[in-house]
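Entry for KG4 complex. Fields follow.
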Amino acid sequence: MLILGIETSCDETAASVVKDGVKILSNVISSSLEYHKKFGGVVPEIATRHHVENIDKVINSSLREAGLNVEDVDAVAVTDGPGLVGALLTGISCAKAISYSLNKPLIAVNHLKAHIYSAIMVKNAPKFPFVGLIISGGHTRLYLVEDFSNFKLLGDTVDDAIGEAYDKVAKILGLGYPGGPVIDRLAKKGNPSAIRFTCKAVNGTLDFSFSGIKTAVLYYVNSHSAELEVKGFKFKADVCASFQEAALRVIVENSMKALEKYKIRSFVVGGGVSANSRFREMMKREAVYRNFKLYFPPLNLCSDNAAMVAGLGYRLFKSGIKAALDITARV
Ligand code: KG4
Ligand code: ZN
C-alpha cells in the first residue's frame, strides 16, 4: 500500500511516499530555516509563506522520485498538529484537496507520534507497550505507548523544551540558530565537569524543567565575560559540554525511571534532539548495562520529515482510522 505523507507543522515543507509503512520511496524536504536564522528562531509568517509557495513543488518531486503519479497512491496522510496553525493548515488544505479530488482516504497524523514512529520504521519493530521519548524544539515528553494511536503521557516539561534550551544557550554564547547541532559539536571539545550546572526532575516526578539551567548558563556567561575574552573557544566548549551533560542526564534518569516503573524492556526515541551524539552514547551505555532494547531514528529522520507521517499514516489506516474532510489544525 502506497501512502503520500505531507508535513508542514513548522519550518520544513515535506512530502514523502512510503510503501507498507516501512519502505521509503521518496523523502523530499524544503526548509525555510535560512530565512529564520537572523531572527534567532522560527517566524510563523515566514514559515507559512514558504509552505504555500513550495508545497506543490515538494509533493510533485516526491511523487516523481518515487516514480509515481498522484493517482497511484492509496491514501494521503497529513500532520494535523501540534505545530504552527498557519503552517499546519497549508499541508492540511493540500491533503484535503488531493483526497477530495481523487477520492482517496485522508489520514490525520499527530506530529509527536510520527517522531516516535520514525525510530521504528523497520521490519523488527518493538512490541507494545514500550516507552517513547520525544525530544525536540517544542517538546520533551515521555509516553507509555500502548499502540499506534494510544500514547499515555508519563512526563512532560513544565517550561522550556530541551531543544529550546539548546537554542537559547547557543544564543547566549553567540553560536547562531539552531543551537543543537553546534553545541553537540562544540561540547566534544569541552570538559563536561568544568562547570557545575544543575538540572533535576520536577519534585521526583517524570516531569522536566530546563528554564533554570538556561538562566544559570546566562548568569555564568555574564559573570565570566573576562574569561570568555581570554579563553574564547575553550570557554564556550566547556559551557556547552557542562550544560549538555547536566541537561541530558536528567532525561536519561527520568527515562530509566519510566522503564523501571512500568517494567518495560523497549525504549524508542524521536525528535530533533535524538540526533545528539552524546545522548545516543549515554543511552547506549544504559541499554547495555540494564539490558533493554533501544531504538533511535536514522539521522535523516530525526528532524521534521514526511516519511514518518506516511509511515504512521499507514499503521493508523490499517487499524481502521481515517479522517473526515472537516479536520483542522490541532495546535
Ligand atoms: O524535531 P525538530 O526538528 O523540530 C520540532 O518539531 O521541534 O527539532 C528541532 C530541535 C532544535 O531545537 C535543534 O536545536 C535540535 O532539535 N537539535 C539538536 C541536534 N540537532 C537538532 N539538539 C541537540 N543535538 C543535536 N545534534
Ligand atoms: Zn518535529
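NOTE: DSSP finds eleven helices and ten strands in the chain.
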